[in-house]
Specification:
The structure is a homodimer.
Chain A (H helix, E strand, L loop, with lengths): L9 E5 L9 H11 L3 E4 L6 H15 L6 E4 L2 H7 L3 E4 L6 H8 L4 E6 L2 H5 L8 E5 L15 H12 L3 E4 L17 E4 L1 H4 L4 H13 L1
Parallel strand pairs in A: 1-2, 1-8, 2-3, 3-4, 4-5, 5-6, 6-7, 7-8
Helix pairs in contact in A: 1-2, 1-8, 2-3
GO molecular function (chains A, B): magnesium ion binding; thiamine-phosphate diphosphorylase activity
Protein name (chains A, B): Thiamine-phosphate synthase
Organism (chains A, B): Rhodovibrio salinarum
C-alpha cells in the first residue's frame, strides 16, 4: 500500500458546531499548536456543499502544518477535498466498498465497540480503528454505553491494528488509557469546548504520552 | 461523452419513507408498470449504509426493467451502487467537482429554480435539469416558492438542456406544463401516496404526453 499511517497520539474530532461561537479555524489552529496530530471533520447534518467548504478550509489550514485531514463518513467529500482519509462508523459505507471507491492512497479508519465489530476490521482494507466509547460521553447521541479502558485494551489486542480510544476522554481519566496498547486518544469537547484549546491539547497529549 | 440521456417523461423521486407502510419496492414496481421512466432515490436523513442498501435494492429492481436509477446528492452512494446518475441540488456538491468524481459515464442532473441557477448549468458537465418548484408542494421543506409553468418554460429555454418539471405536480395541474418545452414531470407524492401507484403513473404519463 502507498499510504502511511500518521501519528495518532492526539486525534481531534470536530465540526463547525463543536467550537461554539469561535470560528472553527481558530480552535483548530490553536489545537494544532498544542499538539493535535490528526483532525477528523465530523458534521452529520451539514449540506454537502457546506461540508465540502469546511473540509477545504480545514485542509488549507492543516496541509501546510503537516496534519492530515480525515473526513467522517462522507467518501464523496473526502475525495472532493483531497483528504488524507475517511473514517467509517458501523452505519456508514462498508469498508470494502469504501476501499474500492477511495483507492489505495487514502486512509480508512473504522469505529469498533465490541468483538464482532473488531473482527470485521480487515487489515488489508482498514488502516486504524477508533475504539469506544471508552468513557460516558455527551457529544455523540448514538455512542452507546461506555466500554471502559480494560475492554478497550482487549479490543486493541484483538483487532491488531493501530487504534485511537474515543468517548468522554479528558485530562482526569486519560491516565486509565496508558498501558492499554492504544496508540492515541480522540477527543471532541476536551479541546473544542476548552477555554484554551492550545493548552488543552498540550496537556492531553502530555498526559497520554507520559 | 459516453452517456445517453434516458426518457425523462415520468421521473419518480422517492425514498423509503415516502411510500408509508407499503414496502418501497412494491410501490416502485407498480410505478414502473404504470410507465415511470426514471427513478431518483432521495433520502436526506438516512445513514449511509441504509441509503446504500436501498440504492442496491432499487437497482436490482430497475436494471432488469431498463429503468435508470439516479441517486440524489450522494455521489459516494451513486458510485458504490453503480447508479446511472446523481442528482445535485444547489446545496449539494458543485457539478464541476461531481463530474470529476463520477467520470464521464454517469448522468448528472441539477436542480434550478431561477435564472442565476439556470446559468450555472454547464452543458459540458450537466446532462439535464430539474426545474421547480413549479407548483406549491408539501413534500420538500426547502423547495422555496412555486415559480409557475410560465417561468419554468422560460428557464427551460434559457438553460438549453433537457428538463423535468418538479414540485406539486398532479393529474389536475399537469396540463399546464404541456407546451413549455419541458421533457418530463418529476413527482413524489402523486405516485408514492396514490392508492394505486400503477394507475397514477399511467394517468400522469398519459396526461403529460397527451
Amino acid at each position: 500500500m502507498s499510504r502511511t499511517l500518521p501519528d495518532l497520539s492526539l486525534y481531534l474530532v470536530m465540526g463547525a458546531a463543536d467550537t461554539g461561537k469561535r470560528p472553527f479555524e481558530e480552535v483548530v489552529l490553536a489545537a494544532i499548536e498544542g499538539g493535535v496530530t490528526v483532525v477528523q471533520l465530523r458534521e452529520k447534518d451539514a449540506d454537502t456543499r457546506v461540508l465540502l467548504e469546511h473540509a477545504l478550509r480545514l485542509k488549507a489550514l492543516l496541509e501546510p502544518r503537516g496534519v492530515p485531514l480525515i473526513v467522517n463518513d462522507r467518501i464523496d467529500v473526502a475525495l472532493a477535498a483531497g483528504a488524507a482519509g475517511v473514517h467509517l462508523g458501523q452505519d456508514d459505507m462498508p469498508a470494502s466498498i469504501a476501499r474500492r471507491l477511495v483507492g489505495e492512497d487514502m486512509l480508512i479508519g473504522l469505529s469498533v465497540s465490541d468483538r464482532v465489530e473488531a473482527d470485521t476490521a480487515n487489515p488489508d482494507i482498514v488502516d486504524y480503528v477508533g475504539i469506544g466509547s471508552v468513557f460516558p460521553t455527551g457529544t455523540k447521541a448514538d455512542a452507546g454505553e461506555a466500554i471502559g479502558p480494560d475492554f478497550a485494551a482487549k479490543l486493541r489486542r484483538r483487532v491488531g491494528l493501530p487504534a485511537v480510544a474515543i468517548g468522554g476522554i479528558n485530562q482526569t481519566n486519560l491516565g486509565q488509557l496508558r498501558g492499554t496498547g492504544i496508540e492515541g486518544i480522540a477527543v471532541v469537547s476536551a479541546i473544542c469546548a476548552a477555554d484554551d484549546p492550545r493548552l488543552a491539547a498540550r496537556n492531553l497529549r502530555a498526559g497520554f504520552l507520559a
